[in-house]
Amino acid sequence: MLFVCYATSVNGMAQKSSEENSTPDKTRVLLILDCSNSMWDKWQSDSKIKVTQTVLLRFLDSISNKSEIDVALRVFGHLNKKSYGTRLEVPFEKDNIYKLRSKIKTLVPQGGCEAATALSSSLNDFPPTGNSRNIIVIITDGMDDCEGSICDVARQIKNSGVVVKTFVLGIGEKENFQSNLNCAGKFIHIPQEEQYTQSLYDVFRLSEEKAEVKIEVKDLSGMNYETSLPIIFYDAQTGIAKYQTIYSSEKNETLTLDPLISYNIEVYSKPSVAKTNIVFDHDKTNNLTFKIEQGFLTITHEAKRTKYQIPEYPIVVRKHGEKEIVNIQTIGEKVAYQAGRYDIEILSTPYMVLNGIDIQHTSNTDLVIPTPGLINITKPNTITRGSVFAVDDVEWKYVCDLDPGKASERLLLMPGDYVAVLSPVDTKTEPTTITQKFRVDAGTTTNIMMR
């Protein structure tokens, strides 16, 4: 039984455009050979271990002149008949092909299957530095009883973000394989010796391929959308951002992506649009199309001339009936949103809530809110604490507290009826509560004396 790993470290957050998409400097190939007893079993012309040694030696010859490829060797089951341990026999280092060939030639299967242990140990074999790429290829005859779950280990390695893709090459009779090997990676059955070398080269060739992806954003009628939107491609398994770009209909951009990764792709419109578990072919230009319909929302104050500055209130926008914030905009700002219904909260004093506002495709939704009024509150000479409430016929709604350290205060309040409630801070005297109603009109200044 034999394991072969093509390995490199991931790039993390990738690039803003196709021109900036960098390719890995090199591919790191970690060979993990399983020297279990079943590798002595005859397979057509010779034993499985002899056939495997021949294939790997031929493979090493083919990459010996490729400076962009680093190779290392980990083996398990070869130490002695009672020990099923694993060991890194040849680490990643420059010009180590001779050491690799020598070690592969002298390997003797002795132990049982410690595939899961070897696979989990392999993460420590990869140098943590450098722009390189990790691909794992497991080659097994599927004959041994393996303690530990290869599938669980492969899943953990994938979630670590170090490995791009896992392949499983199964040599020998198909009925010898445990069905759960399919969960460890892409399973490729090799029933004949003559397919062995070709399958290994096919996987290696695929590890060097790139996928071209053309992005289009269209409206529901199929017309190209003239907009600029950030788009991020996340690794669907790890959640790591792999590529990013700013889409523009004017750029007609084609990205170059890794075809071995399954992507979750998010277009950051308002709200965002996503596609999940997308895989791109390496031998063609892939068309990636998003359908978006947008309208515009603008919120302004009514036109009134004031002697004081009107604040640009933050405006919280949510999808109708949902808690998640879609966006925060300001008074006077024109913002594009996907067509639909929204709940809008204007963080004035007191705040205003507008539910079920309809934004239609290609149209402008213009909302006008009242201009706040200015209130000058003069307090008694004694230090007081107090609060302001908005009132209607029945309900009082808390608005804000007054500062006990100030003899007078200026407040900008939305038009309406209010009550100010004050009481002394000094509790030694008999508490006397002062309550005064007042009205705020849009764009006007009102003076209030609290006595």
Helix and strand topology:
Blueprint: E1 2-7, E2 26-34, E3 42-43, E4 46-47, H1 48-63, E5 69-76, E6 86-90, H2 97-106, H3 115-121, E7 132-133, E8 135-140, H4 150-159, E9 165-171, E10 186-190, H5 194-207, E11 211-218, E12 228-235, E13 241-248, E14 254-257, E15 263-267, E16 273-278, E17 285-291, E18 294-301, E19 314-319, E20 325-330, E21 334-338, E22 340-346, E23 352-359, E24 364-369, E25 373-378, E26 384-391, E27 396-402, E28 408-413, E29 416-424, E30 434-440, E31 445-449
Helix pairs in contact: 1-2, 1-5, 3-4
The gist of it:
This protein has 451 residues and is mainly beta. It has four domains: 2-207, 3-Layer(aba) Sandwich (Rossmann fold); 211-288, Immunoglobulin-like (Sandwich), CATH 2.60.40; 294-369, Immunoglobulin-like; 373-449, Immunoglobulin-like (Sandwich).
CATH-level-4 superfamily name of the largest domain: von Willebrand factor, type A domain
The geometry reads as elongated
Classify the helix fraction into a percent range.
Answer: 10-25%
**Beginning-to-end CA distance, first to last residue:** 93 Å
Q: Kindly state the mean pLDDT as a whole number?
A: 84
How many helices in DSSP terms? 5
> CATH class of the largest domain, please?
Alpha Beta
Give the biggest sheet.
8 strands, mixed
Strand content: 35-45%
CATH topology type of the largest domain: Rossmann fold
Output the structural class: mainly beta
Q: Would you identify the regions where 5 or more consecutive residues have pLDDT less than 50?
A: 1-21
Looking at the overall shape, the CATH architecture of the largest domain is 3-Layer(aba) Sandwich
